[in-house]
Every structure is written in structure tokens, then in C-alpha cells.
Specification:
About 25% of the residues lie in helices and about 15% in strands. By secondary structure, it is α/β, with parallel strands linked by helices. A hairpin with a 6-residue loop joins strand 12 and strand 13. The longest helix has 17 residues.
């Protein structure tokens, strides 16, 4: 039964029917870095449960938990050794049940990560495959192939790993196995009935426990063209993470056969009451992305085009138009995301000069020559404006933990602290994603700024406490209070999914969601006039020494400063 908010239970789940997800706000929790209850330096489920009140007070509707399953942590938990248990470093199944119960008390739904493209090389199936030998049923659960050349010493194809190097590793008996990512993450064979049946069982296991949905990792990579001889890609699969692969009919990205999997999964999620949801991580072209959200497949797909959009009115308008137009034929709505656990935090991206190669910048340590120094003040203004822009759009917004605190990327992590497998697999030429995964600061002081009673698995920089939740709570103008105000106001306009562009000045983006929420963003370098009316929310306060007004005729007309967004209430 759906709970309704009351004065005694202000966070109870709102009754929005089976389509609660269409215009929700989902908060991504990177489990190792959110909160640590037991003091071992690694985030855990009890720590999350203890801190869920923060997310409820923020105004989110759901949480998405990254993998917390047993794992050697070769890739931050995305190398799963057991899909139906909890890693002891993160807690127990009872801890997970308690987390679910606490989330329900606070009116939060819970989405968990599912990692179906690959498992860990410590998974029992992979041990069985190695022991069974070539041609066995055990090996058929994975992608094992003989090598090329007279002695099989060359990989079966030129396929490349997303983490650097070949996508093939040779085993002692001479065969090679495929791994799109790290060698510790062997790809599963989704033509094998054991794989299909086991994952359907895994979905039901977590659904029976009470989860509200799944985020599907590498959703576009499950099916491969394994017809011999394997086709070479000739460098066509070396795009960055979450970028669409080059060319059509790729041998292992975005194949049409993958949709059969999701049609079967949709029948499973629809068999629960209320129906559960699924969201795809699919790095595909804008033309192909809507295929994943057809009515009999997944409910949502991440919109990485919005995440990668350069700062500018024309660029954002093009992405928004394409996203809304692409979603319309399937009856879905776009998702909107600015950051996640795989990319440089957007505050820092906006602080860097346009066109900066963030991988090269990370290798510099972020301290200048030869790479640029971020303009943090500009990054903060743009990140705040981007938050209002994103939250005003029809559809679901996914927030990445810490963006509500204005956290920047930590670019100067020492080499001996890096955990991302990219660092080693690229021969120390790509620093990886650790800089956006540094544990959250909850308090201004303490061994790990309130993250836990001990240290933290990634070092937190000096001064991290100035971003802490406790430091920003109740402080007018803070990042946290901006997000809280925006999410509260957004709820008033939820359910009205209409969208139209409004007349705007050069360098300005202006639109109306439904009949009431008007959003304007100034991407130009000069103040722009604002229409008259109520101004319920401004992304940044006027610069010190000004009153936020501007006039060319001696009067005092309201204006919108550069790199600033405003929400106007157009309900009359």
C-alpha cells in the first residue's frame, strides 16, 4: 500500500501510481564512498542507512546503489563474484533489508545496480570454466576462443578493452577469453541458456527482497556477433566510456539481439505490483537510444549527451531538442544527468576552458602547466545554473552524490593511492576515475570529515571539510540549500510534462515546463533583462557590491547575470 505524507511522516512515498519514475529525482550512491559505519575506511550499507535522512531532506524520490555484491574490487565492485549476496566489507543481507526498510520509512525508493555483461574472474563459474577446458559447457558460459596464428599465440580478434590494451587474455591451456573491460572481468556469453536463466533468477531474488528497480550496467554490450571468424573492428571500439561506438553493425556494441533480453526482463518486472523499473546505461547514438525504451523493454536510458554537452545555449538547446524528440515516439521521457562515478565532476569540467582534454588535465594533477588551472568561481556559477536548467526539464534527473555540495574533482590523488584499473592497464597514461569517487565530507573536521570513525579508502584533500553537509546546512546561498530549494519547488510542477521554448536573447536559453515553471539561463557574457514576475529561485546571488539590477536608461530593471539561471513562476 502506498504511504502518504503526513506531519508525523513527512517523507512518505507520494502516491504517483506506477509511473512514479517519469519525473522523479534519483540520487546515485557510490557505495564505497558515501558513509562508513564500521570504521574500516570503506563505505557500507549501515553507513548509508544512517545517512539516508540527508537524501530525504534533499527532496529526492529514490536512491540508486552502485554494486555492493561480493567482489575483489578490481573495478570498484563492477566485478561481481556473487550476484545474490553482500560483500562483507559493505555489510550483510540483513543490513540490506534494514536499508530498504529505512528508505521506505523516509519515502525513498531503492534501485540497485545489475552487472550482466561480465562477472569477476573469482566467480565460481569462471573457476569451473578454467578447470573444465576447451569445448566444455562450463566455458560456453563465457567467450573463450582459440587464438590466431599457427600456434594460437595471437588474440582471436583486434577487439580492444575500454580500460586499455587487448580485450583478450590467454589462459594456460592456450585459449583466450574476452573482456571488454579489465582482465578480471570476463564477459558472459548471452547466447548461453545458463546465463539467461541465472540472471532472471537474480532479478527475482532482489525484487522479492523489495527493490524498486535496476540500473543495468553496459546495457548495450551483452550480445556479441560471435560468428567465426570474429570480425576485426580496426580501432572502431576505442571510444571513451559512455561514448557511442563508431560505425554501425559493431561486433559487440549495441546489437539488435540485445533487445530480446530486455523484453524478457520487462515481463519479469511487470509481474510485480507495483511494476518495477529498469534504466539502461547504454553508450549508443542518439538515433539508437530510444530503442532501449520501447514500451515492452526498459523504462529509461541514461542521457549521456546532456552530460557531455559543452557550455553554451545552442549546444544545450540542440541536446534538449534531440532528447525530447527521441523519447516521444516510445512514450517515454528523457533522463538528465550531469555527473556520475565514471566522469570528471561537472563543476570542474565547467571550471576548465572549453574543449579541455580532461584526461590530460588529470595527468597534470590539476595544478597548471602544461594543463590549465580551473576557474573554480566560474565552475561554481555554471554548476549551479546547470542544476536549475536540468531540474526544470521534463523527465527524471539523476544526481551524483556530492554534486549537491558543490564538490570538485580531486585531480591530485597520489599515484600510489589510485585504484582505477585504467591506471595500470594503460601503463600509467590514463589516471582514471578515482577523482570523482573520493568519500563525501559530512562534517568540517574529523579523521575523514564525518565519512566514518576512521580513515577513508581514497585520501580526502585538505580543506575537504568546507564542502561538508554540516557546514552548508541552513546557510543561505550554499550549494546544498540551492538544491533543497530547487527540489522542493520542482515537486509543485511535477506531472505537467509539456515543454516549449520561449523567445530569448542571444546567448540565452528560455523554456517553460508545462503551464507554470519558466527557466532562463544566461550563457552570454553580459547581463540580460528578465521579464517581470515572481522570481522564486536564482542559481547565484548578485556579485558583491551590486544589487543585481541593470538599466540602460537610468531605471532599475531586473537582469540575469552571466552563467546564471532563474526559475520564474508563470502560473499567474
Amino acid at each position: 500500500m502506498t504511504q502518504h505524507a503526513t506531519p508525523e511522516n513527512p517523507y512518505a512515498i507520494a502516491d504517483s501510481g506506477g509511473d512514479w519514475w517519469r519525473e522523479s529525482v534519483v540520487y546515485q550512491i557510490y557505495v564505497p564512498s558515501f558513509a562508513d559505519a564500521d570504521g574500516d575506511g570503506m563505505g557500507d550499507l549501515r553507513g548509508i542507512a544512517d545517512r539516508l535522512g540527508h537524501i530525504a531532506e534533499l527532496g529526492a524520490d529514490a536512491v540508486w546503489l552502485t554494486p555492493f555484491y561480493p567482489s575483489p574490487l578490481a573495478d570498484g565492485g563492477y566485478d561481481v563474484a556473487d550476484y545474490r549476496d553482500v560483500d562483507p566489507r559493505h555489510g550483510t543481507l540483513d543490513d540490506f533489508r534494514a536499508l530498504l526498510a529505512r528508505a521506505r520509512e523516509l519515502g525513498l525508493r531503492t534501485i540497485v545496480d545489475i552487472v550482466p555483461n561480465h562477472c569477476s574472474d573469482r566467480h565460481p563459474w569462471f573457476a569451473e570454466a578454467l578447470a573444465a577446458g576447451p569445448g566444455s559447457a562450463e566455458r560456453d558460459r563465457f567467450v573463450f576462443r582459440d587464438g590466431r596464428g599457427p600456434d594460437g599465440a595471437e588474440p582471436p580478434s583486434d577487439w580492444q578493452s575500454k580500460f586499455g590494451g587487448a580485450a583478450w587474455t590467454r589462459v594456460p591451456d592456450g585459449q583466450w577469453y574476452m573482456h571488454i573491460f579489465a582482465a578480471e572481468q570476463p564477459d558472459l556469453n548471452w547466447e548461453n541458456p545458463d546465463v539467461i536463466a541465472d540472471f532472471e533468477g537474480t532479478l527475482r531474488f532482489w525484487l522479492d527482497l523489495g527493490v524498486d528497480g535496476f540500473r543495468i550496467d553496459v546495457a548495450h554490450g551483452l550480445r556479441k556477433d560471435l560468428t567465426p571468424p570474429l570480425r576485426d573492428t580496426r580501432g572502431g571500439d576505442t571510444a571513451p566510456l559512455n561514448a557511442p561506438p563508431s560505425g554501425e553493425d559493431h561486433p559487440f556494441w549495441d546489437r539488435d539481439e540485445v533487445h530480446d533480453i530486455y523484453r524478457a526482463w520487462r515481463k519479469i518486472t511487470d509481474s510485480y505490483a507495483p511494476p518495477r523499473i529498469m534504466v539502461a546505461e547504454a553508450g549508443v547514438s542518439a538515433a539508437r537510444l530510444p530503442l532501449y525504451t520501447r514500451p515492452d523493454e526498459l523504462h529509461q536510458a541514461f542521457n549521456f549527451f546532456h552530460l557531455r554537452c559543452p557550455w553554451g545555449a545552442d549546444a544545450f538547446r540542440e541536446v534538449i531538442d534531440a532528447s525530447l524528440t527521441g523519447a516521444a515516439p516510445t512514450g517515454s521521457l528523457p533522463t538528465w544527468v550531469l555527473s556520475n562515478h565514471d566522469v570528471v565532476r561537472h563543476l570542474t569540467r565547467y571550471a576548465l576552458p572549453d574543449g579541455t582534454d580532461t584526461r590530460r588535465w588529470l595527468m597534470s594533477g590539476g595544478d597548471g602547466a602544461p594543463a590549465p588551472v580551473p576557474d573554480e568561481a566560474r565552475g561554481r556559477r555554471r554548476a549551479r545554473a546547470a542544476a536549475l536548467l536540468t531540474l526544470a526539464l521534463p523527465g527524471t534527473t539523476y544526481l551524483y552524490q556530492g554534486e549537491e555540495l558543490g564538490l570538485p574533482e580531486v585531480a591530485d590523488l597520489p599515484a600510489d593511492a589510485l585504484r582505477d584499473p585504467m591506471w595500470e592497464r594503460t601503463g600509467h597514461t590514463v589516471k582514471g576515475r578515482d577523482g570523482c569517487r573520493v568519500p563525501l565530507p559530512w562534517t568540517a573536521a574529523g579523521a575523514s570529515y564525518g565519512f566514518g570513525p576512521g580513515g577513508s579508502w581514497l585520501p580526502q584533500p585538505a580543506g575537504w571539510g568546507r564542502y561538508a553537509v554540516a557546514e552548508q546546512t541552513g546557510r543561505p546561498g550554499s550549494f546544498l540549500e540551492l538544491y533543497r530549494a530547487a527540489l522542493a519547488l520542482r515537486r509543485e510542477f511535477r506531472g505537467d510534462e509539456g515543454f516549449r521554448w520561449l523567445p530569448s536573447a542571444e546567448g540565452e536559453l528560455a523554456f517553460r515546463k508545462g503551464a507554470g515553471l519558466e527557466c532562463r539561463v544566461n550563457f552570454s557574457g553580459v547581463p540580460l533583462p528578465l521579464p517581470t514576475g515572481a522570481v522564486p529561485l536564482l542559481s547565484s546571488a548578485p556579485e558583491p557590491g551590486t544589487d543585481g539590477t541593470h538599466s540602460t536608461d537610468g531605471g532599475a530593471a531586473p537582469v540575469l547575470a552571466p552563467d546564471t539561471a532563474v526559475w520564474l513562476d508563470a502560473r499567474g
